[in-house]
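ok trying again, last paste got cut off:
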Amino acid sequence: MRLSVRTKQVAGVTAIVFAVVACLGGYYMLSLAGVFIEETRARADLIAGGVYQRIAQLTRDGGDLREAIRTDAGLRSILESSMYSDGVMYAAVVDAQGVVLAHNDPSQVNRRLPPVGDLAALVDASAWEQSRAIAAQGGQAHELRMPLMLDVGAGVQEFGTIRVAVSTLLIRSDLDKALRPALVTTIALLFGAVVLATLLAQWLLRPILVLRAGLARLGRGDTDVTLDLPLRDEFADLGESFMAVRDRLAKEHADGEVSRAAMSRRLAALGRVSSGIAHEVKNPLNAMRIHLELLRMQTTDIPGTSEHVRVLNDQMRRLDEVVQGFLSFTRPEDLTTITIPPAALFEDLLPVVTAEAGKTGVQVQVDVPAGVPAIAGDRALLHQAFLNLAINACHAMPNGGHLRLAARTSSARRGHVELLVEDTGTGISPEHLSRIFNLYFTTKPEGSGIGLALVYRTVTLHDGDIDVQSVPGSGTTFTVTLPSALQ
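nice, full thing came through this time. structure:
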């Protein structure tokens, strides 16, 4: 399904808002993980400090220090109370060989306590590594290790180590509880931001859509068209210019003094004004793409960010293509009119058309009888217009067929020549025939909807007509009627 221009605009702005909120939310989560780890380390420091002070007191009391550590009720009380601290798994005192002298779990006494991760290293790690440790399946244990530097008769030496272990699984549980209110707030803010972005996109880009619709109606000869543009900003001048051109065209139509080529030249003059609006949209688009690239470089270590950046970049590229198409359609053209024999015009197309037709086995025929008058027109514009028609015809015959490029003197309009592009392809559905020349309308999955609109514009600039007849499954014929160079 082909998305409308408005839908693409809203989707692009919404995606940018979502990426910003996601990045800020990720940053907040990483920061909060670091805060919880630091708080857990502080609690472990407090427990280790209390144990150290108690053992220092036992040292001053004299006697067998190892036995005193094993049997002291005050030390046991400190170790057992550590279990009431958030995130703490155990607290123990081990000797230099790693044998437990005291533990909050008495059954561990006289056993060797296996080493686990270093809590100090986790505290000093990056926010990303801290988050990975907290999110690890099953959780991990990290110890705060405080050496026991005591004077036990042979001078101050390391008697053993106080080890307080914390669990990342317990830290994660506390982190989840803290993130729930923030998650609800983030979802609410994101929803509000999406609604605001939708309204803002419609408000900012609405003048271009209004102008495009007005130009299309004016191009079809509707001189009653009006533009609903703001009255007190830079769009007011654009609206006044449009209305002035419309009024002049209406007067010239009424007086019978204007030809279709003259109307097209005035529309081209209005296109100069509208192209300025399109450029004003391209400037912020370019700035957004630059800052998006900077954001990508700064968040390469956050998983999932690259996918969001890719989606945003694709949406902005599509917006840029829409603006480029709008510029192409409204860009003013100064016709360089020369005499062009129809046979020479078709011969110029053959190298490109034949190569494209050869891909699917399409046979190309040029049929220009002697005596068909030359036409008057801009060779480059007409070349591109008929090339678009011929290439489209080749694409309509994926299984081969016949393409005929023909010219004849018009029997319906004196002093005009009819140039035909006929194919035996899939044809055009009746419901699409009235819309094929509309800007951005296309039935191709990868089509831009600009080619046939530019063909119609070129024919109009030459004071000509274009007609299409099609039978689904049998083929299509485009008939372009242009003034001859003899009139």
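cool. The chain has three domains: 5-177, 205-330, 337-483. The CA atoms of residues 95 and 281 lie 72 Å apart.
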